[in-house]
Amino acid sequence: MTLVTEPVTGPTAAPRAPHPLRAEWLRGFAPWAGAAVLLTLGVTLWAKADQWQGGWSETAGQLHSAMLITLPLAAAAGCWQGGRERRRRTEELWGTTVRPPLVRLLAAALPVAGWVAVGYLLTAALAQLATWPYAQGDRPHLTLLPGDTAAMAAGALAGHVAGRAVPARLAAPLLAMAGYVGLGIVTMGRSVPGHALSPTTSLPSGGLPVWWQPWAMAVWTGGLAFAIVLAYAARRRMTAVLPLAAALAAGTLLAQTGNGLWHADPLARRQVCDTSTTPAVCVNARYAGMLPQVGEALSGVTGKLDGVRNLPVRWADRGGAPRAGEARLPGITPLGWSAVRGRLTDPEQFAWEAVAALQGYDCPGRTRTARVLRADDAVEHYLAPTSTGKAIDEDDARGDATRRADLRERRAARAKLAGMDERTRREWLSAYFAAHADCDAEGVPAL
Q: pTM for the complete prediction?
């Protein structure tokens, strides 16, 4: 008889139970909160894409400005999560567990805080990718992201406590509306400390934060949120003093620094120039890649000005008043008007505005007589004719006798300037620009 023996095996290992927080992080309300932030911020940016896509500074500014919407949304998401147990009527059941109240609160609140922060960061990354193909200079501006991300998470934590403390189903939408109005009042107000302490304060045009401002803002908002959490749920509520002290220290630093939190971008002070033309063409170094197409748009003007004297040295894009010997280049910024996604929207109009800058319309107290008006119109039509000007002429031709007579005089002046030989026209234009440079209306030569 053959004995058959079977190997003895140990007990089958039981499958490892999933961590209790796994459902909160992956299958609860938290991922939907992150998706809501991503969708809301994405739609907000998409609606204004013409105003930021193509400029790194504008992209950072739009992301930061959108905090006025996403921060109340994060707080509302936290508030809704905070009221979950009350809606399910499981508060008493959770009170019988061995977990302390602080642990239970953080287990429910941190996933929402983490996901709204992830939603904001993911949208910010997509915005950078959307700007990259059209950027004409500069570099990505990511300095504000740590402070903004921390503020989003802090808003969700504070909102969670509000959801637990306020027994109302409408607490979440009411908190969102109150947050939007409150932040809007602080952002639009004139209080310097209020601007410094608000995480939604608009980024100054061409400005950058000092290196420590985002980190101080993170301590300010995060410290307040953790102080609220500890004061509400910790066994030893005095522990809330530690994050509160850190928040107050950071807030004091921010408030006392005030407008010193921002400084001008050094790159915005630089000009990139094409000196092969007269006048030279300069653009702000933040948009250096647009110099070739700006030069192309002005090529018809600079070609006709070859050999003309008394012109400004250059067109310059400094964002403010031009310096001596300069004319203001038509504004490339704000994006969405003259330039969209790295391209000039209307080169013809751009050239006309550049000619208008050469004519010195900013002369204080200057009176433009009929003779000066005809000379200005003739120069504009010669250097940079536009379809808009043609439409105005056609409209005047259908007008009353006074408008038709004025049109005949304008056309006669244009024809006289265009009919001059090259040398005579250069001399006339030189005298014309000399008179404009001196703001001397009487010195403008007649046509």
A: 0.87
